[in-house]
């Protein structure tokens, strides 16, 4: 499949990609889902909801997990 300049596409549940230089066939991809390391032991990682790709972090009240600005689970 060929993508044009600035065209975006999804690579399954793994990556969001964009063509950055169509004349050279260059593209960039970024992971769709965050990887959580060193979560508090009280928190758990739940499977992605149906129709979504990314797992959900479940923590008890009072424990806050900070997400990057603009992050939206996919």
Automatic annotation (TrEMBL):
Keywords: Collagen
Cellular component GO terms, alphabetical: collagen trimer
This protein's name: Collagen alpha-4(Vi) chain
Organism: Plakobranchus ocellatus
Phylogenetic lineage: Eukaryota, Metazoa, Spiralia, Lophotrochozoa, Mollusca
